[in-house]
Amino acid sequence: MTPRRAEEEEDDGVELLQGTLTMMILKALSWGPMHGYAILSWLQQVSEDALRVEEGSLYPALYRLEDRDWIAAEWALTENGRRAKYYRLTAAGRRQLAAQAKSYQEFTAAMARILNAKYQPA
């Protein structure tokens, strides 16, 4: 992900809220175990290239999630016969995904109300 500072006012990309990468990784893994490159590819594909997560952002996030016991990892062979670390969602990770998704849906609903407001501030 190419994060931008909050004070930047350019319109050339999608700025993500803090914690969004965690939620995106947990969602990707909700489909089943994946290695890092597969997570990156899935996020890019599902977002229709609107979001690009960099490896330099993904792997530290995966390590943090593993430290929190939201995901677990084990080494296995990829479909190409290469050795890769596969990550899977834990029960705690599923609960965290549900909580974050609910909070994010409430936030986006509130933002939609603001953006679609029919009256100006008093």
Describe it.
With 122 residues, the chain is α+β, with helices and mostly antiparallel strands. Helix content is 48%, strand content 13%. The longest helix is centred in the last third of the chain and has 25 residues. The N terminus is likely disordered. It has a three-stranded antiparallel beta sheet with strand order 1-3-2. The chain has a single domain, classed as Winged helix-like DNA-binding domain superfamily/Winged helix DNA-binding domain (Arc Repressor Mutant, subunit A, Orthogonal Bundle). It has four helices and three strands; from the N terminus they run αβααββα.
In CATH's first tier, which class applies? Mainly Alpha
Oligomer class: single chain
Low-confidence stretches: 1-13
Give helix and strand order, one letter per element, not per position.
Answer: HEHHEEH
